[in-house]
Fold each of these.
Amino acid sequence: MFCKNCAEVLTDEDVTCPKCGFAAGTGMKYCGTCGEELLIGAAVCEMCGTPVNSVPGGFAQQPQHFQQAYQSAAQQQTFQQPYAQPQQTQQQPTYAQPNVNQQIYQQQQAFQQQQQFQQRSMPPQQQAFQQPYSQGVQPIPVYNVAQQKSKVAAGLLGIFLGALGVHNFYLGYTGKAVIQLLLTLLSCGTLGVISEIWGLVEGIQILTGSINTDAKGIPLKD
């Protein structure tokens, strides 16, 4: 006797198929007598002529436990049949979910291609300025030489007029300059000593190179 679902050889004592788990005598794929694959819709086996719905050896001659298992499996198969083979009026297209890592990689590639296109369309000087930034290196700022402030002038202003914050106004450090100026004016010169010492220290730092840029980050010229 063969399993009618997977054609596995069964013994008379097998209630279910040890391979697929179907109850013995259930299934519509293979002949239970010879194990030949059945055609869809065939009423009898073309090899041995056994009816498709018959149980090998006769249903009445099978043991009682086999008859109960067969009836239970037949009822279960009848109940699950509409769900196992649903009628599809229109096949819906299936779309594979893209991998998250693949999406990130594609976005990075698109961003790099956009940057390369923008760089090719820029003038050569601007390309040279932005090239280190695209490689993760801090770009060297491009500035006009006329924008550079004099280190000597800023240092002397800090030494002689530091109480009024003139050197900080000159370098663009407006916040510190206003504080030094207010300390001197609002205190009527009482706290001007503090501003003067503050300006003197900053003037020396400017002349020695400890402060070598203005508020915009442009290096001071000698």
Amino acid sequence: MIKLTDTLTEKKVEFKPLEGKAVKMYVCGPTVYDHAHIGHARSAVVFDVIRRWFEYRGYKVIFVRNYTDIDDKIIKRAKEEGIPWYEVAEKYIASYEEDMKALNVKEPTYKPRVSEHIREIIEMIDGLIEKGYAYESEGDVYFSVEKFPEYGKLSKRKTEELLAGVRIEPGEKKRNPLDFALWKKSKEGEPGWESPWSYGRPGWHIECSAMSMKYLGETMDIHGGGLDLIFPHHENEIAQSEAYTGKTFARYWVHNGFVMVNREKMSKSLGNFFTVKEILEKFSPDVLRLFLLSTHYRSPIDFSIERLEEAKRSFERLTNFLRIREVIEGLEILEGEGSPVNVGAFRKEFEEAMDDDFNTARALGALFELIREANLLKDRALKEGKITKAEKFSLLEALDLVEGALKTLGFRLEGERGEKGIEDELIKLLIEVRGELRKKKEFALADLIRDRLKELGIALEDLPTGTVYKRI
């Protein structure tokens, strides 16, 4: 049984799909006018893990993540770069997809672009006008908030409170300051499409409603995104979608917390952001993924290079453990039960943590505790050169659990530069050369290999069963 925290009800509830074992899931994607930063990466990785966990539990996930490829920010960037708006969008979609591939984020089932769904958007706006929920004003079209009595139910904001802080922008012809744009008439020189109201383009909120309905139907299971999207974006999506269909738009709303820098939300507007590409120049994608999953998805996460260094050391603990398989296989088998690790208990803890609102922090904690216990057994066995059959089986089972769990969480386990296989073989080759040098009593050269490897962060340990290595 999977439980998740639903933003609408503000409760942790049992997930029950609308149809059988299918999960219809929509996550708001980026507005593509710049390279993705760590805040974008967190949302992508969080919902990638949620999707993967549903699949692990036997669900079929239909996962939609959109691109907003026409927007004021894109038009502004196009003017700055002296290229058409669609080239800006194409450039940064390619950049985003490069980042997602590096982070091992699974491809969405569908990844619609706003510019390719103008017909569906116009049809929906036309329907809202017909039903009396929207109105045209000098080429613009607005949604009438007062016609939707439940407005504010997601963000828990009352209309009178909202009115106190809202102002009408110059040129807007709204009947009510809270009304929001469904269609915007293009200014001279701006891109647009023909519509019954004007040559223009969609408002931001209507895009997600129209695209999600095309691929997931009028009611989806889960709608996700960052906390900053609750208001106004997701609030407006609910209003226009439920006004249009008369049905529940999303059965569960899931939101991830902010990435913080010096106690402020990471954002392009504040200029305190780090792009994914900048971070991946210094840290592996697996290390960044571990950092992002080390805090529960709903909580804020403090970003710093020091925290990434901590994540790197933690990731090295994981990969060091996964390298012991060959050494364990070569140990002499003793009679008796011994003291095997209770791997089943850790598997249960991992799965319960993930079922409990996708608690990756607790799930990873279970894996690290398993590794701690397994290493105690492993170290004793390596020093003695012996192990019972039950103990050996438990260590191999622990290795399988850790590797399988990490892959379920989306880790590639390809080492710091994505070349784990080649790197490991080179280290093994140096260990072999060192062993031959020691046999020939050329200890100075053998010690030089050991010392230089240590400088590179690779520690060698000579045991009765042979030489093993780990990252330090």
